[in-house]
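Inverse folding, one chain.
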């Protein structure tokens, strides 16, 4: 079994910072990519930032220059440092891991439960 667990959400004032963490654990052979996604009620889920195991990163235009994704390959963990937060960043942030549990299977998507980030004064 594989578990993906996020932590670090909360309430912060505009201009503040938060750091999210996501760890994949269990029967993991290797992971290809991990990333952060966010969703607000009534809207589609959007990609925030992703990283491959090798370190290739992607950022949504709305967070470039403010958010930084990093990884610890050995710990199957990624982080999202969020600076200069804005009210429009308020959402449930979910972590996705593309990984395989054996060397013979294809990578599959595994999702965490999500963590709430609220930016408000």
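Residues assigned per position:
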């Amino acid at each position: 079994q594989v578990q993906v667990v996020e932590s670090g959400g909360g309430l912060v004032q505009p201009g503040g910072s938060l750091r999210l963490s996501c760890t994949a654990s269990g029967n993991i052979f290797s992971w290809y990519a991990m990333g952060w996604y966010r969703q607000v009620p009534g809207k589609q889920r959007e990609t925030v930032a992703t990283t491959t195991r090798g370190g290739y990163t992607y950022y949504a235009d709305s967070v470039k220059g403010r958010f930084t994704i990093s990884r610890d390959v050995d710990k199957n963990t990624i982080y999202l440092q969020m600076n200069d937060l804005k009210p429009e960043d308020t959402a449930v942030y979910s972590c996705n891991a593309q990984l395989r549990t054996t060397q013979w299977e294809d990578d599959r998507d595994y999702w965490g439960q999500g963590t709430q980030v609220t930016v408000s004064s």
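The chain has a mean pLDDT of 96. The CA atoms of residues 17 and 41 lie 23 Å apart.
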